[in-house]
Specification:
By secondary structure, this protein is of the alpha/beta class. The protein contains twelve helices and seven strands.
């Protein structure tokens, strides 16, 4: 089905690797969580810093990522969506950790495996599931959602101004025959964008569908709230995001303890939030890293330091 050969390089090139691990580790014998194991790049770097009783819990919902597990008894790798990570930690009798790392989005491997349907580069079945055991996939979204649902998805998750027109076109085309491949989706929307912007806007269409299929923003919100309960005072939350929807949620939560960014203060002017940002602005990849790994160009890393209990909402 693929019109191009699938990528065969490294499973996933970790972004901001040294910066993320340096920010995360506050004590070398602590307990840490890598919520997005992927190719294991961040996890391996964390394990390299741990000493003594140090331990790492890692999560990934993609069964293909589990094959990258190193032979290290300090690592407990769990196949699960990170929106459930607090429950899994408590199952392992872990009630508090020293730091949590999340590298959001799609791995290099998922983008480069054309058959997964994540990339506009390949002609493949519309799938886009990170967990291929779940029932909802991109085909069902495109062929079963009503026009308003499609328009809302494209507007809110793809930030597409012509979302209504795009939704109407999808509904019109699918009446003739179901849209089941990435090539058919691109053909259905041909002419809906100015030629000079077509590639970038088509990527936004794919992003919107992927976020919907995987419930990514809801999962992110749940993860952030759980991090506030599970990270010890003084511990770190490190999140790397790749588009404005994710980054805005992380920024607002670290700044205000909620997703709207509305700060509440006590009588002394202290912000009532579980975290405080370590830096005022997001950390971005260096020019050298972007040259080595172009996908790091859009990365934004934010670091939160867990406040004392008195500031927890």
């Amino acid at each position: 089905m693929n019109s191009q050969q699938e990528g065969s390089g490294e499973y996933h090139i970790p972004v901001l690797l040294q910066e993320a691990v340096k920010a995360l580790i506050t004590k070398n014998d602590g307990i840490y969580v890598d919520l997005t194991f992927g190719g294991g790049g961040h996890s391996s770097a964390i394990l390299g810093k741990l000493t003594g009783t140090g331990k790492l819990f890692a999560f990934d919902q993609d069964e293909e990522a589990l094959r990258n597990k190193p032979n290290d008894e300090r690592l407990i790798l769990i196949k699960a969506n990170f929106r459930f990570f607090e429950n899994y930690l408590r199952y392992h009798q872990i009630n508090a950790v020293d730091g949590v790392l999340a590298d959001l989005g799609v791995s290099s491997h998922q983008f480069d495996t054309g058959s997964r349907g994540f990339s506009i580069r390949y002609d493949a079945p519309l799938d886009m599931r990170m967990d291929r055991m779940q029932p909802l996939n991109a085909q069902k979204v495109l062929n079963e959602y009503d026009e308003k649902q499609l328009a809302d998805m494209l507007y809110y998750y793809g930030e597409l101004r012509n979302a209504r027109q795009l939704a109407a076109k999808i509904v019109q085309i699918r009446k003739q025959q179901p849209i089941v491949t990435t090539a058919e989706l691109k053909h259905a929307l041909k002419g809906m964008f100015k030629p000079q912007h077509e590639k970038d806007l088509m990527i936004q269409v794919f992003q919107a569908i992927r976020i919907e299929v995987n419930g990514e923003l809801d999962a992110l919100k749940e993860m952030l709230e759980q991090s506030a309960r599970i990270i010890k005072p003084g511990g770190k939350l490190v999140v790397i995001s790749y588009h404005s929807l994710e980054d805005r949620l992380v920024k607002n939560f670290l700044r205000a303890g909620n997703f709207k960014g509305e700060q509440l203060k006590d009588l002394y002017g202290n912000v009532l939030a579980p975290f405080r940002p370590e830096h005022a602005k997001a950390i971005t990849a260096s020019a050298d890293e972007v040259k080595r790994n172009p996908r790091s160009r859009s990365a934004r890393m934010r670091i939160g330091i867990r406040n004392d209990e008195i500031n927890k909402i």
